[in-house]
Amino acid sequence: MTIIEAHNIRKSYGSLEVLHDVDLLVEEGEILGLIGPSGSGKSTLLRLLDLIEPANAGELSVFGIDTVTDRGTWLDLRRRMGMLFQRPVVFNASVYDNVAMGMRYRGAPRDEIERKVKEALEAVGLSRYIKSRALDLSGGEQQRVALSRVLVTDPEILFLDEPTANLDPTSTATIEEIVTRLNREAGTTVLISTHDLAQGQRLAHRVGVMIEGTIAQTGPSREIFREPKSQRIARFVGVQN
Ligand code: ADP
Ligand code: MG
C-alpha cells in the first residue's frame, strides 16, 4: 500500500520557491532516505509531509486520505505520525516526564504510560537517567530522550530530519539500531533525511536524491551510485564518496 503520495508539491517562502514540483511515493513498511546537499529542501519537504505546514500547491495524500481538500483531517493524521528533529527537543523536566508527555496529552492511563516510558527508555539505553533532569544530559542522550517520546506514541510513520547530525557515535548507533528494529519488528514506515550518504546506505531500502528543491532521482542507493541520472547527482554522490 502507498502510505504517502505527493504530486507536484510546491513551497515558497516569500518570493523564494524552495520546492518545485516534488513527486514522491512512499510504500508502507519501507525506510526511505532523503539525501541531498544542505539547502536542497529536505527539511522543508519533511515538514510538509508531516503536516507541520501546508504546501502552496500540489496533491498530498497520507494513509490514503487527501490532506489538501480536507484540512480537518490534519490533527488525526498527525497523531499517527512521529517526528524527530535535528536538534533534540527536550523540556525542563525529568527524563520520565519528557517521555510521558505525548502519552499524557493523548489521555493514556497512568499505568500504561509508566510501562511504556520504562520500555522506551530501556530500548534507548537511558533507564538509569529516568529521574534526571533532561537538560543535564548530553546532546546525544537528549536526542535519545526525544526519540523515546516519539516511540511511546507508536507512530505508523516516523519522520527523522538529520537525527544524528552532531551526535556522538554511541547515540548515532543507538538511534540507527532502534530505527532499523522498529521498521523490522513493528513495520513502521520511516522517512529519514541525512546528508550522510553512508547512513542513507546503512538504513534506507530506497533513497531519493534532492537537488535544488526537487527529487532528482529515486531508487536503491546502489543504483544511484552506479547510474546517477545527472551531473549534479553524480557530483553529489561522488564528492562524499
Ligand atoms: P535542507 O534541509 O535540505 O538543508 P531546507 O529545507 O532547510 O533544506 O531549506 C531549503 C531552502 O528553503 C533554503 O534555501 C532555506 O533557506 C529555505 N527555507 C527553509 N525554511 C525557511 C523558512 N521558514 N523561511 C524562509 N526560508 C526557508
Ligand atoms: Mg535540513
What this model shows, in words?
It is an enzyme of class 7 (translocase). With 241 residues, this protein is of the alpha/beta class. It contains 9 helices and 10 strands. The strands form 2 sheets. It has a 6-stranded mixed sheet, sandwiched between helices. Strand 1 and strand 2 form a beta hairpin. Helix 3 crosses helix 4 (110-123), helix 4 packs across helix 5 and helix 5 runs parallel beside helix 6. The mean pLDDT is 93. The chain binds adenosine-5'-diphosphate (ADP) and magnesium ion. The site of adenosine-5'-diphosphate has 10 residues, from helix 1.
Topology:
Elements: E1 2-13, E2 16-27, E3 31-35, H1 42-49, E4 57-62, E5 65-66, H2 74-78, E6 81-84, H3 95-105, H4 110-123, H5 139-151, E7 157-161, H6 169-186, E8 189-194, H7 197-203, E9 206-211, E10 214-219, H8 221-226, H9 231-239
What is this entry, summarized?
The protein is α/β, with parallel strands linked by helices and 241 residues long. The chain has helices spanning 42-49, 74-78, 95-105, 110-123, 139-151, 169-186, 197-203, 221-226, 231-239, and strands at 2-13, 16-27, 31-35, 57-62, 65-66, 81-84, 157-161, 189-194, 206-211, 214-219.
Helicity level, as a percent range? 25-40%
Sheet having the most strands: 6 strands, mixed
Mean pLDDT: 93
Tell me the structural class.
Answer: alpha/beta
Features:
ATP-binding, Molybdate/tungstate import ATP-binding protein WtpC, 4-stranded antiparallel β-sheet, 10 strands, alpha/beta, single chain, globular, nucleotide-binding, binds adenosine-5'-diphosphate, binds magnesium ion, 241 residues, 9 helices, ATP binding, 6-stranded mixed β-sheet
